[in-house]
TrEMBL record:
<dbReference type="Pfam" id="PF01966">
    <property type="entry name" value="HD"/>
</dbReference>
<dbReference type="GO" id="GO:0046872">
    <property type="term" value="F:metal ion binding"/>
</dbReference>
<keyword id="KW-0808">Transferase</keyword>
<dbReference type="InterPro" id="IPR006674">
    <property type="entry name" value="HD_domain"/>
</dbReference>
<dbReference type="InterPro" id="IPR032828">
    <property type="entry name" value="PolyA_RNA-bd"/>
</dbReference>
<dbReference type="InterPro" id="IPR050264">
    <property type="entry name" value="Bact_CCA-adding_enz_type3_sf"/>
</dbReference>
<dbReference type="Pfam" id="PF12627">
    <property type="entry name" value="PolyA_pol_RNAbd"/>
</dbReference>
<dbReference type="InterPro" id="IPR003607">
    <property type="entry name" value="HD/PDEase_dom"/>
</dbReference>
<dbReference type="InterPro" id="IPR006675">
    <property type="entry name" value="HDIG_dom"/>
</dbReference>
<keyword id="KW-0479">Metal-binding</keyword>
<dbReference type="InterPro" id="IPR002646">
    <property type="entry name" value="PolA_pol_head_dom"/>
</dbReference>
<dbReference type="InterPro" id="IPR043519">
    <property type="entry name" value="NT_sf"/>
</dbReference>
<keyword id="KW-0460">Magnesium</keyword>
<keyword id="KW-0547">Nucleotide-binding</keyword>
<dbReference type="Pfam" id="PF01743">
    <property type="entry name" value="PolyA_pol"/>
</dbReference>
<dbReference type="GO" id="GO:0008033">
    <property type="term" value="P:tRNA processing"/>
</dbReference>
<dbReference type="InterPro" id="IPR014065">
    <property type="entry name" value="tRNA_adenylyltransferase"/>
</dbReference>
Length: 486
């Protein structure tokens, strides 16, 4: 599969033309809503992401507006436009509404202040649109459209930054990131999603303010990291996190992979290897109709974490060879601990840890072709992560030795063919003994107890080793085992 690419930013003259015509593409219902506010003496402007996305040729399902009206006034005016309103964001000045399929959220101009200790603002309403735009994260999100007149408002040069593919804060970056440190992670996320670069002064401020990210909740950090990983240029986004020093606080396992490479290159650069594995894993995602839909968070997290056990297991062996024995087992534990700290869902954590622990299982297949029993165990151990394991294992090949890469690819092709052959002959995705618990008790004439479990394990081992036995042979083998046990 071709790796997704960030949206292409048109030349500035095209962006200007889109700015002038932006109001034309707004639904008639929005114009009606704007007239309602204007008639009441209030401003209504489209702000933030929807404006940016319109320039990029992308539509937004939800529309965000800012207004000079206070929340009570907004609610009253919005109720004239639709009966479907909600006010969960009232404390922050936001009232929402829906009319047919159109969802809008309208927020009173804000002039918040921050206490410098948390990222939660002291909410204060303002009277200035420019003041409201100044408190936004980046200039490309600080553009607005006055709906009633079609006037494009860009006090901080967001259009130029959009055309240049730059991320820059509307006010001083130290002030902006000091107010809300999560904006630093958002910068890295936009690098991945949009393919933009962080303006040098803004990036320098990220380095100075990196430790401020520690006041942000784990859930918020997780959400931004997830969006970054689901972007089009994940490598660039992660590099921004590492080079700015932010990863050292939120994902320290990643910069820890920057192990010193010995002069004889007895081991590869694990950090760069990991970034390459992520890219190659993304290339192997199979799309919406495939076994691993794209984008796939679990696969991308597994590629990110698969070698995190290497720093802890690095050893210098006789002869100067560097080893990482059992790094897959150690790595699974490290991945579990980090993902729990970031509040990922239990199923995601379990899957990523499982893939991390299994990612080396294939090695050795090319040297000694596995028996059918070994193939069955590989499938059984992988369980519902088999398709992701296929892709992670293939992505983990980053050698520049063409012959070695081709040999490994051929070996894995052979393994997948072996799995397909066995699937055609027998059920190998959920292997069970030929006899269930009830049949075991009937065959041996015993009741429930530990012996039934032992017998089940014995029959399961036979099934793994020899494939389906059939009821009669399974009963015969079971009786022989039982007699020897007695």
């Amino acid at each position: 599969m071709t790796r997704p690419t960030p949206p292409v930013v048109p030349p500035r003259n095209v962006l200007v033309a889109r700015a002038e015509a932006l109001n034309v593409v707004l639904p008639p219902e929005v114009m009606e809503l704007a007239e309602t506010f204007v008639d009441a003496g209030h401003d209504l402007v489209l702000v933030g992401g929807p404006v940016r996305d319109a320039f990029l040729g992308r539509s937004s399902a939800d529309l965000d507006f800012a207004t000079s009206a206070r929340p009570d006034e907004t609610e009253a005016l919005l109720s004239r436009w639709t009966k479907a309103t909600w006010d969960m964001g009232r404390d922050f000045g936001t009232i929402g509404g829906k009319r047919n399929d159109l969802v809008v959220e309208i927020t009173t101009f804000r002039a918040d202040e921050y206490d410098g200790v948390t990222r939660k603002p002291v909410v204060a309403f303002g009277d200035s649109l420019e003041g409201d735009l100044a408190r936004r994260d980046f200039t490309i999100n600080a553009m607005a459209l006055r709906v009633a007149t079609g006037e494009f408002i860009d006090p901080f040069g967001g259009l130029d930054d959009l055309a240049g593919g730059l991320l820059r804060t509307p006010v001083g970056a130290d002030v902006s990131f000091g107010d809300d440190p999560l904006r630093m992670m958002r910068a890295a996320r936009f690098v991945s999603q949009l393919g933009f670069e962080i303006e040098p002064a803004t990036f320098a401020a990220m380095g100075r303010m990196a430790d401020r990210i520690t006041i942000v909740s784990a859930e918020r950090v997780r959400d931004e990291l997830t969006k970054l990983l689901m972007g089009a240029d994940v490598r660039a986004g992660l590099t921004a996190l590492v080079d700015s020093g932010i990863a050292a606080h939120v994902l320290p396992e990643l910069p820890a992979l920057q192990l010193e490479v010995d002069e004889h290159h007895h081991h590869k650069d694990v950090y760069q290897h990991t970034l390459t594995v992520i890219e190659q894993a993304i290339d192997l995602e199979t799309g919406d109709d495939g076994a691993v839909p794209s984008p796939d968070l679990v696969l991308r997290l597994a590629a990110l974490m698969h070698d995190v056990g290497k720093p802890a297991t690095r050893r210098l062996e006789p002869g100067g060879v560097v080893s990482f024995h059992h790094h897959e087992v150690v790595g699974a534990k490290i991945a579990t601990k980090r993902l729990k700290a970031l509040r990922f869902e239990k199923d995601v954590i379990k899957a990523v840890a499982h893939l991390t622990e299994l990612h080396l299982r294939f090695h050795g297949y090319g040297e000694a072709r596995w028996s059918d029993s070994a193939v069955r165990r590989y499938v059984t151990d992988a369980g519902d992560q088999l398709e992701r394991l296929h892709r992670l294992t293939r992505a983990d090949v980053t050698t520049r030795n063409r012959r070695k890469a081709e040999r490994l690819a051929f070996a894995y092709d052979d393994l997948e063919a072996r799995i397909a052959e066995l699937r055609a002959k027998e059920e190998i995705d959920a292997i069970r003994p030929d006899l269930d618990g009830t049949e075991i008790m009937e065959t041996l004439g015993i009741g429930p107890g530990r012996a039934v479990g032992d017998a089940y394990k014995f029959l399961l081992e036979l099934r793994m080793e020899h494939g389906p036995l059939g009821t009669e042979r399974a009963q015969e083998e079971l009786r022989t085992w039982w007699s020897a046990r007695a």
